[in-house]
Amino acid sequence: MDQVEQYLAENAEQFVEDLKSLLRIQSVSADSAFAAEMTKAAEFVRDQLLTAGLSAEIIPTAGHSIVYGEWLGAADAPTALIYGHYDVQPPDPLDEWDSQPFEPDIRNGRIYARGATDDKGQMLTHVKSVQAWMKTHGRLPVNVKFVIEGEEEVGSDNLDKFLAANQDKLKADIAVVSDTSQYAPDIPAITYGLKGIVACEITLRGPNQDLHSGMFGGSVANPANALAALLGGLIDADGRITVSEFYDDVVDLTEQERAAFAALPFSETAFKNSLGVADVFGESGFSTIERRWARPTCDVNGMISGYTGEGPKTIIPSWASAKISCRLVPDQNPRKVVQALEDHLRAHLRPGLAMEFKTYHGADPLVIDTESAFMNSARNAIEKSFGVAPVMIREGGSIPVVASFKRILGVDTLLLGWGQNTDNLHSPNEHFSLKDYQRGIRASAHLWNELA
Amino acid sequence: MDQVEQYLAENAEQFVEDLKSLLRIQSVSADSAFAAEMTKAAEFVRDQLLTAGLSAEIIPTAGHSIVYGEWLGAADAPTALIYGHYDVQPPDPLDEWDSQPFEPDIRNGRIYARGATDDKGQMLTHVKSVQAWMKTHGRLPVNVKFVIEGEEEVGSDNLDKFLAANQDKLKADIAVVSDTSQYAPDIPAITYGLKGIVACEITLRGPNQDLHSGMFGGSVANPANALAALLGGLIDADGRITVSEFYDDVVDLTEQERAAFAALPFSETAFKNSLGVADVFGESGFSTIERRWARPTCDVNGMISGYTGEGPKTIIPSWASAKISCRLVPDQNPRKVVQALEDHLRAHLRPGLAMEFKTYHGADPLVIDTESAFMNSARNAIEKSFGVAPVMIREGGSIPVVASFKRILGVDTLLLGWGQNTDNLHSPNEHFSLKDYQRGIRASAHLWNELA
Fold it and tell me: B217 and A327: CB-CB below 8 Å?
């Protein structure tokens, strides 16, 4: 490990330059206007894998391509399947960024750019740790297979098909994913539970055009009022979701988990201050940590109807639309939940309106065994890089691939997050601590050793 | 009247050309980007009054100018105060227009353009009828004073001040306004009741930036969900507005009115078909006509929050905003209603959110005496032009100036609508029947005779 550590130290600056180059590529998967940038990002990742000393290729899918790379020279050693994604969330709202989202800017030891932490920066830690082994030893202690996709932010529609079609090629003993966070600065964590997700969009159509609210008010259902009634009715005053059967399959937190969560350092005041809110809100009867990590949620992600420009315009809008996502916990089933949601919305629709319901994507929730040998290797690797053992946490985010790895390849996943909750992923001013970037690379380098 | 009628017949085409010229001017009062067009429209109206043989001037206000014109040569005859407005609603959504909103296009005997019926076309009928008298007789049977404002679509903020400061100049026996509709094609109407209005905008602010819905879902109130809950809660399943005290001052319809409304030809099926809705919806216990004309309403005119682009984006939006308008009936008070609405919304706000509440404008509801001598003159004038006596109706629209005329100048108003409910005012493809335009001019010409 000494040679590896020395290589990491000597190349730390170059690792940052490589990250900056990747962050300059506007790989927004949700918007077809960025298709050429998506291709550019895939090519960049492939070239990084080649530079690290792996074989690498770009594999087309029905959507955005998957980058695959491997080194399989460690006979009798285990095989790690490393997953990441090169696509990013849209950068809107642009006017809330302090620097350009695709022009990485380093301030106070952090690199600011869309995708800095989610997931370009975190994903690159494993490429760089592999590079360090290959450049210093010409080999790795384990076999590695990289799968870096371009559709994580839009539901990974083509990944499962790729996994199913390449089960032999992708055969592995353990998967490694860095797309989560540390518990807090200098409190590294391993995430053993993830929420699932369903996302959908509904559009209500009423009159065939916008109507004068004086002439026609009171005569027909207003799509904006009706959409508000539907969305507003989804959560009651206690923060409970009102969709019938929604909670039927929810596995309660164990007393042990509740105690462990309660023992973690957490200041609700600091939390509120960091978000700029006067109070927290959510399902009554649960702590803020419990709600974030282990209770299902239902959020309106966006909505639009009628006139939204300057000044008043007294109309009944012709249509109204909203995007909704529900975060799920074991053993909720995404397909069952989205069907219950659609049924609920249709049942509460006001007369004279037509509803279009579009499902975007789903992912199963999951929890992982915290006592496996792989989990112990990861704990050791992290302790060696960070100087402190990681805490065991769950997370509210959804990483569909983890459920897919289990279901399709039969492999468990180590969720080793190098980021911070405060890194603004999916928000303006997304960033990644360069210290976390370098410690992540080092922990990853140790992990290959520990696994072997 | 023979000479007048002949002049009208001979100049019908020129009257349409003048209307087209006015419709080409993009006089959108709500948007400051159109300020120069507003000035152009005022100048055009002034020149039309001068051409008609009146004295005319443009009078600046703190907002958009008022055009004033007069002819006072009929000693001992009554004085009519004619009101109209040269400003129009914004033309959005532009892509739903079949022709350009500011390039008037005649199809099937109708002229299509923003403002065609509301109110450029209707307003111009009185200018042209006066022109006919002046060009044929060198005089009018009555005195006339024109007040044509440029802020009707944004609340007439400066009109009341103008009226109050010019009470002598504006002294009149009766006001005449054509900014309403006939009951139906070939069923002319006099409108004796108007709704009032209050319009406002609310913005809910939550977290200081958009948040990842997985990482933060369940921890803080989502402004979009919370706004939906507030707006959705404003109307119950029976179509009743839930704001406490909202209905306290509502004067019930008389049995006579209900019977008269019920006797009017009205096909609910045709109404639904014209709007493209499968069903009507509104306050239970009232007919569709009653709800439109004489029951208060509460409409969301627009709302926006979070991500509204292509594909999913699973965030908790930082803020959410909506425009709301309530249409009022006698004896509801706009100030009292908007205060009750604000109180209601604040009382139901979820924890951790800040609410901004902005009031746009208000207007009192009113009903007018249907048995006055002026009303009889109007009935006769309309019958002479249209060949049929008008029906007496109320309307859901708000024309604040009518209440102002009564309150400030002590004068009643004849609401003589030449338009149709189906003219798409405030909507894409606004239009005005050229037959109604010419019949309106003729009825107006008769009105000056009847009033004298």
Answer: yes
What residues of chain B lie within 8 A of the CB of A291, using their CB?
218-219
Give the gap in angstroms from C-alpha A178 to the nearest C-alpha of chain B: 15
Positive or negative torsion for Cα A19, A23, A27, A31: positive
Residues A72 and A53: beta-carbon distance below 8 Å: no
Contact A121, A433 (CB under 8 A): no
CB A273, CB B191: distance < 8 Å: no
**Chain B, window 300-329: residues with a beta carbon less than 8 angstroms from a chain A beta carbon:** 300-317, 320-323, 325, 327
Q: Show the domain range for B180.
A: 2-194+366-451
Domain-embedded: residue B258? no
Distance, CA of A187 to CA of B413 (rounded, Å): 75
For chain A, what is the domain count? 2
- Rounded CA-CA distance B386/B388 in Å is 5
Closest CA to B134 of B225, B233, B54, B58: B54
Q: Do A321 and B312 touch (CB under 8 A)?
A: no
Give yes or no for A417 touching B (CB within 8 A): no
Judged by CB atoms closer than 8 Å, whether chains meet at A212 and B397 is answered as yes
Of A363, A396, A420, the residue that ends a domain is A363
Q: How far is A2 from chain B (nearest CA, A)?
A: 37
Which residue of A183, A283, A303 to mutate against B (max B Cβ within 10 Å)? A303
Domain end (from A339, A363, A387): A363
B152-178 tens-digit pLDDT = 999 888 999 999 999 999 999 999 999
Q: What is the pLDDT of residues B300-329, one digit of tens each?
A: 999 999 999 988 999 999 999 999 999 999
pLDDT digits (tens, 9 = 90+) for A10-37: 999 999 999 999 999 999 999 999 999 9
Per-residue pLDDT, B255:
93
Q: How confident is the model at residue B421 (pLDDT cuts 50, 70, 90)?
A: confident
Distance (Å) from the alpha carbon of A52 to chain B's nearest alpha carbon: 32
- pTM of the predicted structure, to 2 decimals: 0.78
Helices (H) and strands (E) in chain B, counts: 13, 18
What CATH number is given to the structural domain containing A64?
A: 3.40.630.10
Please choose, from the candidates B307, B169, B109, B352, the residue with its C-alpha nearest in 3D space to the C-alpha of residue A282.
B352
Across A165-310, the runs of DSSP E, i.e. the strands, are: 174-177, 189-194, 196-205, 211-212, 297-306
- Verify whether the Cβ–Cβ distance B207 to A233 is below 8 Å: no
Of B93, B210, B300, the CB nearest to A426: B210
**Phi, psi (degrees; rounded to nearest 5) at A111:** -105, 125
The predicted pLDDT at position A398 comes to 78
Neighbours of A386 (CB within 10 A): 19
Contact between chains at B351 and A280 (C-beta distance less than 8 A) = yes
Distance CA A234, CA B229 (A): 8
Q: How far apart are the first and last CA of chain B?
A: 13
